[in-house]
Amino acid sequence: MIETLFNMDPWVITTFIGASIVLYLTPGADMMFVIASGVKGGPKAGVAATAGIILGVLCHVALAAAGLAVLIATSPAALDVIRYAGAVYLAWLAWHSWRSQPQPDDRQGRADLWRAFRRGFVTNILNAKVILFILAFLPQFIRPEVGPEWHQIVILGGMLAIGGFISDALIGVFAGLAADRVRRSTHIMNKAAAVIFGALAARLAWN
């Protein structure tokens, strides 16, 4: 795989990184989820949610490299099952956030960080659009003469994940810091997170 990396055209890699940066700055489901997590649980929760999301991205990249994502993408029924499962999960998060009671002293606890990480992972892995995105985006930068295609998918997917973690983690930290300034309004923060989760569920179900 190292040999494949060195064989890759620097211009292709540069173009890929540039395109990835544009994607990082485009508001999407992952960004909104990280913001909601940061608002609800503070800066550390925003970073933990980002880590979970990136683990989900890496799983999608691994599936694409193994060719399984192609099989999933060619089955509309499978994609619908994944899509609706993700919508139901986000709706549950919205309901849970709406009913949760203010607990400012526990926001930085390990349990909350693990919960944010787990929710980020589940939300991403159940997002059928990520499967289609990986299949549509990464192959544009694959060059068969460079080396095995799955090597290139893993390399580019790793770059995408690293950049995504940095950008989303920063967003999660800023969202958490902004929420920390109004800790006395934790109840309002929970309601705001619930609205975001609910909007994501609706978007995933009807798009």
Describe the protein's architecture and organization.
The chain has helices at 2-7, 10-24, 29-41, 43-66, 68-73, 76-99, 110-125, 128-137, 149-180, 186-206. The chain has 207 residues and is mostly helical. Helix 3 runs antiparallel to helix 7 (110-125) and helix 6 packs antiparallel against helix 10 (186-206). It is globular and about 55 Å long. Mean pLDDT is 80; it is low at 104-108.
Which features does this protein show?
207 residues, 10 helices, 81% helix
Count the E strands: 0
Low-confidence stretches: 104-108
**Number of helices in the DSSP assignment:** 10
Helix/strand order, N-terminal first: HHHHHHHHHH
pLDDT averaged over residues: 80
Our measurement of the CA-to-CA distance between the termini, rounded to an integer number of angstroms, reads 37 Å
Strand % is under 5%
Shape: globular
Structural class: mainly alpha
Layout of helices and strands:
Layout: H1 2-7, H2 10-24, H3 29-41, H4 43-66, H5 68-73, H6 76-99, H7 110-125, H8 128-137, H9 149-180, H10 186-206
Summary?
The protein is mainly alpha-helical and 207 residues long. Helix content is 81%, strand content 0%.
